[in-house]
Please model this.
Amino acid sequence: QVQLVESGGGLVQAGGSLRLSCAASGRTFSNDALGWFRQAPGQERAFVAVISRSGGSTYYADSVKGRFFISRDNAKNTVYMQMNSLKPEDTAVYYCAAAVLKGAYYPRAPSLYDYWGQGTQVTVSA
Model:
């Protein structure tokens, strides 16, 4: 059974940092693009970041560029996102996702992803 399990969310003050992790199991994800999305109450799920299969290329939403950093460890089948200088508007449920065999691309549309985690809540207080 394929699973993606996020961890590392929580409550943090504005300006603080959190590191999210997403551990994958059930298959190897080394050829897949891995991405992070977020969904705030009443809003659609939005792209945050994506990383290529080698980890050498990344792409970010403008709203997080320079503050969030995505990375992956293929040996551990895990993707991470370091979030710095957090703002209240970053408050959302954060999801990791895998786009099968799209590791050479940078998919940003949720519909292009095949596997999703259950989400982890990030709350940033003012």
Remarks:
- The two ends are 40 Å apart (CA to CA).
- The chain is about 0% helix and 50% strand.
- The mean pLDDT is 95.
